[in-house]
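Progress against Task 2.4 (sequence-to-structure conversion) is shown through the following example record, which the project officer requested during the mid-term review.
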Amino acid sequence: MTEPAPPSRTVLLTVQYDGTDFHGWQVQPGFRTIQSVLTDAVDAMVHHEVVLRGSSRTDSGVHARALPVAFDTLRSIPTYKFLRGLNALLPPDLSVITADDVPPGFHPREAAVAKTYTYRYQLGDPRRPLTSRYTWQVKRRRFDVVAMREAATHLLGEHDFSSFRAAECDARSTLRRLYTLDVTDPDPSEMVVLTVTGNAFLRNMVRIIAGTLAEVGFGRRPPAWVGDALAALDRSRAGLTAPASGLTLTTVHFEGYPRLGKGKGKGDARGAKDEGC
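Structure tokens generated for the chain above:
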């Protein structure tokens, strides 16, 4: 008598990576991506092909402190062995921080209610070898963070962020909701950190916000200009796209923010998904 196949299970990994030498999250033939490298490692452990379900699609050069990734498997490998085994197979710039069993079919992208990103500006001329891979070195000491905070208030809440998305962004809805947008004072190492939490983000949206607020910090634009750029619904009216090196996905939230439901097209921010930041 043939024994029944073991039931499928879903494992949720929390992944951390230095995105400098990756061509983003998503599999692209001929390029080194987080999804392809991690898939190879999981396949090698479970001895069957898996499909990874990520919570965000970070762009080339963008980092992640805690990216949830789920996959289904028939294998009964304990989660602590996944943690040890995968990290033995993965390269130094990609690591699994946690591994847990979750309800079958769990999809972190569908379950997420909000995401938090940080963007780091390094002030001053001298290169900082210990942080240069994770910051934008702006090569100046004058950086008006008070004016940047005032400018950031124009972006809070639900808006059409057409002015803050890449030309190649093909998201159906350009409405997004920002819950928080904070700018720190420079720390003793002259680093300024921008932190933004929203329900989801358009392609390059956080980097364009970072570049636009930098224009205000440099004194080139007044804070009110950011509100005008937002209202224009025109990418050319906002600031530059800040370098990918300064951006890190820090947290994917599964609770603590409203679950906005399914999106219904251009005029609805509900259920919006990240399109690559």
